[in-house]
Amino acid sequence: MAGDTFSTLHLDPERPIYLQIIEAFRLAVARGDLAPGDQIPSQRDLAQQLRVNPNTVQRAYREMEYLGLVETRRGTGTFLSPDPERWRKVREETIQAELARFIDTMGRLGCTGEEIVHLVRAAVQSTAVQPAAAQEGRVEPPAPTPAQEGEASDD
Amino acid sequence: MTETAGVPGTAAALGDRAPVREAPVAESAKPVLEFHDVHKHYPGVDALRGVSFTLPRGVVVGLLGANGSGKSTLIKLAAGMLRPNRGRVRVLGLEPGRRTKARVAYLPEVDHLYAWMTVAETLDFVRRFYGDWQPERERLLMEELGLPERQRVGALSKGMRARLRLVLALSRAADLILLDEPLSGIDPPSRSRITRAILAAYRAGEQTLLLSTHEVLETESLFDRVLVLDRGRVVLDGDADSLRGQAGRSIQALLEEVLG
């Protein structure tokens, strides 16, 4: 339900708020909390829910419209792009950006490419770090951590 | 973490283009508040020493700075309560005074309420002075802030009086809203209620809101723009999200840095 998706969103005051709002929508679709074509909250409602300036939400929505992630239909509201291809591309770009960031950080810590590959494989194989992609059926569901329990109660 | 990593190309794309907006009519294109090299002295004190800035319509601006930095003086000049010794202040292109009073809602730091009136009587009394009073906004604020209508103002706690003053300032469709320390004297649990009420009443894109505060942590998510004063001078003026992106820090942290 779109109304609840953002009630638990924690905004980081060290990063631009409008970008965090865009990320929240992207993640909500990736997780399946929102589906392509879903109506999203009005700018005013979301601003009050997040307790941020409505102009900041407007900036986020305008940017998402520019990126083709949402469409505003006059008189009815704002909807996520119904095109699954668009969202697949967004997910792909996000993965690439996250990877680049991770590799950059590891490089700064003095790791070589081979070391990074080795460390990632070892970390994924250990039980401590499991990708949270159980819903997609690619890995066995990991033992729930407190954070995941909190999320599960929303479903 | 960089701010653009999550949404590739976002910041660059935003910089390349003019904001998408309806063609502005002459009135809305006019700056709502302008300060041009404004100086204000009190006996023995230079409160403002050459302050310049321009606020367009529809922005929420945080006026930040330490005690005695000149925040209240700046707000009083905009409200037409004081005149500058040097420089120029303009509200919608006009010199602050009788003609701008109808366009400006001002919440002073000090209390100006009559203790013998009830909350409802105070609202009745103040409402009559303003043609731009919005009854539905008043109702919304009264509900949001939980004010007891029948109680006498004299019997209200300091925090409740602050809430009532907020209702008076925010119930109007003024072009410029000036809030001088709306959170001072309000206990931390009630502050989020106040900020929520401000957001509920504020008309995005229509009203310009200038809010001075010490409580940066609780309010920074409200601001489009921050204006930081230090000993009578503007030491930081910028778009809040751009400042966060450039510095990778919160407004609170930036403030400590520029004032430290």
Write up what this structure looks like.
The complex is a heterodimer of chains A (155) and B (260). Chain A is mainly alpha-helical and 155 residues long. Chain A has two domains: 2-80, Winged helix-like DNA-binding domain superfamily/Winged helix DNA-binding domain (Arc Repressor Mutant, subunit A, Orthogonal Bundle), CATH 1.10.10; 84-134. Chain A is built from seven helices and three strands, in the order ααβααββααα. Chain A has helices spanning 2-5, 17-31, 43-50, 54-66, 84-108, 113-125, 146-152, and strands at residues 39-40, 70-73, 77-80. A three-stranded antiparallel sheet of chain A has the order 1-3-2. In chain A, helix 2 (17-31) packs across helix 4 (54-66) and helix 3 (43-50) crosses helix 4 (54-66). With 260 residues, chain B is α/β, with parallel strands linked by helices. In chain B, strand 1 (33-42) and strand 2 (45-55) form a beta hairpin. In chain B, helix 7 runs parallel beside helix 8. The chains are: A mainly alpha (155), B alpha/beta (260). At the A-B interface, helix 2, helix 3, helix 4 and helix 5 of A face helix 1, helix 8, helix 10 and helix 11 of B.
Write the topology of this structure.
The complex is a heterodimer of chains A (155) and B (260).
Chain A: H1 2-5, H2 17-31, E1 39-40, H3 43-50, H4 54-66, E2 70-73, E3 77-80, H5 84-108, H6 113-125, H7 146-152
Antiparallel strand pairs in A: 1-3, 2-3
Chain B: H1 10-15, H2 26-29, E1 33-42, E2 45-55, E3 60-64, H3 71-79, E4 86-91, H4 98-101, E5 104-107, H5 119-127, H6 135-145, H7 158-170, E6 176-180, H8 188-201, E7 208-212, H9 216-219, E8 225-230, E9 233-239, H10 240-247, H11 251-259
Parallel strand pairs in B: 3-7, 3-8, 5-6, 6-7
Antiparallel strand pairs in B: 1-2, 1-4, 8-9
